[in-house]
Amino acid sequence: MQETVNDYFRRGFLLTPDALEFLSKTSDDFDVVSGDFVIDARNFVLKDRIKVIKNFQSRKSEITTEDFVKFYTSKYEKMKGVILARIQKDFISLNKIDSMRNDACIIGIVREIKEDEGRKILDVEDMTTNVPVIFEPKDAEGVEIDDVVAMRVVTGGKVLFGKEVLFPDIPIRTPAKGRGKACFVSDLHLDEAPESDADRFFSWFERSDIKNLFVAGDIGAPAELEKFAKRMPSKNFYACPGERDSEGCPQMPLDFREKNIVSVSNPAMIEINGIKVLMMHKAPHDMLKKRHMGRPSAIIPEDFMVIEEVPDIVHIGHSHVPGITNYKSVTIVNSGSIMSDFRPVVVDFSSRVAEFAKVE
């Protein structure tokens, strides 16, 4: 125990007997919250446990035909894995379908959608071949080009007759619980927002008992965010870019010098204290149902937009419309914009209660 006493003394603290006893009974990592020289057990708080799960960090300058093939193969295989884990059916590949009129289940990527005589014809492809699938419009509602979906079909020679589209979707589950709180904001537009409005928010955050701030794009002036982060060295900032910050999607992380800013890509997923947060500046409304965050703006080595791990919180921006909604135990938050209707969202990880903050 003398080694522990010496370690804290070198850090500028003197441990009381109850602090020493507290440390001897735990294996967790703690931060010290105190401006005093003498500290006791009340001055210890658990360190945040942070894991970056998804973070885009490389982009090719030139794209080849092989890159296209790799990208779409990656998309199909990733989505197939998600579907097989979610939907318990006996799937067959398209080249194994015979001309007998039988029910079958297939997985394919939608390459083209046509309409003919009031019906939808989906050109569907897997790794073996492609085949047209004829649907009544209501049975293929929501399907778009490049979607990878499961289908229940009836075979009929050179065409298939679609009976049902099975989207990968996310499972119904009990909401995950963690510890601590976080504040979620986006669209700060620090390059044009009134300085008083930005300072008002960050002054409130500085005074709050919330340690973690997530910023989902359109920062506007990264250097300004650094100024606020530097002012609060004991707090953590997690920031991804938006279209005002860099081009394309996915976007690589921005460069920050402050150590308390964790810079991640758009999109990105971070697990913090047992809660998985998916950050994306602009997101399609049905991305959880389709398990996909939409078409990338450029071909990349693999499809980064597949949602392989189910998030607990989806943090989005772009629309400038604040909102808190839930979809199958996933909390979806948007703070709006500091340029219009700005309502920062606070989520208590231990209860999963999400509410708009009263910034004063």
Explain how this protein is built.
- With 360 residues, the protein is an alpha/beta fold.
- It has three domains: 2-46, no CATH class; 50-60 and 172-356, Purple Acid Phosphatase, chain A, domain 2 (4-Layer Sandwich), CATH 3.60.21; 88-166, OB fold (Dihydrolipoamide Acetyltransferase, E2P), CATH 2.40.50.140.
- Helix content is 18%, strand content 31%.
- The chain has six helices and 21 strands.
- The strands form five sheets. Strands 5-15-16-17-19-18 form a six-stranded mixed β-sheet, with no helix packed on it. The chain has a six-stranded mixed β-sheet with strand order 14-13-12-11-20-21, with no helix packed on it. A five-stranded mixed barrel has the order 6-7-8-10-9.
- The mean pLDDT is 90.
